[in-house]
Amino acid sequence: MTPSSHFFNSGDLKLHYLQWGDPQGIPVVMLHGLRGFAETWQELVTALGDQYRCFALDQRGRGESDWGPVSDYHTDTYVEDLNAFISHLGLDRFILIGHSLGGTNALEYTRQYPDKVQLLVIEDIGPGSSNRGDGAERIRREMRNTPLSFASWSEAESFWRSSRPNLTEEALAARLKFSLREQDGSVTWKHDQQGIAEARLTIEPIDLWPAVNAIRIPSLLVKGGNSDFLPAATVKEVIEKNPCFSAVTVDNASHYVHDDQPEKFNEAVVRFVQSASV
Q: How far apart are CA 84 and CA 107, in angstroms?
C-alpha cells in the first residue's frame, strides 16, 4: 500500500501527514515517537489491510512538517495539533495509536476528547516513563549527546546502529531515509533536533495517571520485553487501576517495539483491533 502525501494548517504551522487505504475504511490515526516520522507506520498499515483507512501525522518539528518554537514542543500543543488534524480529516470516531511521545499525546487527547476515540493502542510508555528510571535518563543522555550533523551517510548509519542495535535492516533504512537529509555538504536531521532536545531537557513531562484513569474504551498497552522505558510494574499497576487496559509484552524488543519486532508488534495490534472492534 502506497501512501498519499498531504498538508494542513495547525495555527501558524503547516503540518504533513500520510494517508493509506479505502476512503470508506475504518479510520486509524497514528502518532510516532520523539524523533520519529509518519513513514514509521508503513508495515503496520500493510498488516491492517484494506479494511482500514490510516493516517500518520508528522508531528510538529518532524518529517515534512514545519518546526515550531521550543516552548511549543510539549503535550498541550501536540494535542492541539492532533485536534486540528482530526477536524481537518472530519473524523467523528477513530482508532488512535501512539508510540512513546505519540503515546503520551494519544492518552492526553483521549482524556480531553473521550467521545472521539474508539480504541486506543499505546506503545511502550506509561505514567512515570518520561521522568524517572533508566529509560528516561537514556533519552536525556541521547538528547544531550546527539550530533546536529554528520560528515557522511556512513557516519549517520553508524550513529543509528550504535543507538538502536536491535533495529531491523528495514527500520534502519527507514531511519536513514526519513529522519536525515543531505544539506550543504553534510548529513543533517530532518527534524528539529536542537529544539526537540532543548524541550525534552527543560520542559517537565505531564503526569499520565489522570489520562490513564480517565480511559473508558478498550485500550492496549504494548511493552518491549527488553524496554528500559516502561517497567513491568507500571504495566501491572495500569491494568489493576483501569480494567479497560490490556497488555502484551513483545520479547526481544526494546522501547522501539515496532522497529525491533515488527511482525510480533503488528500481529498484537491487529489482533487487538479486530477483536475489540467486534
A: 16
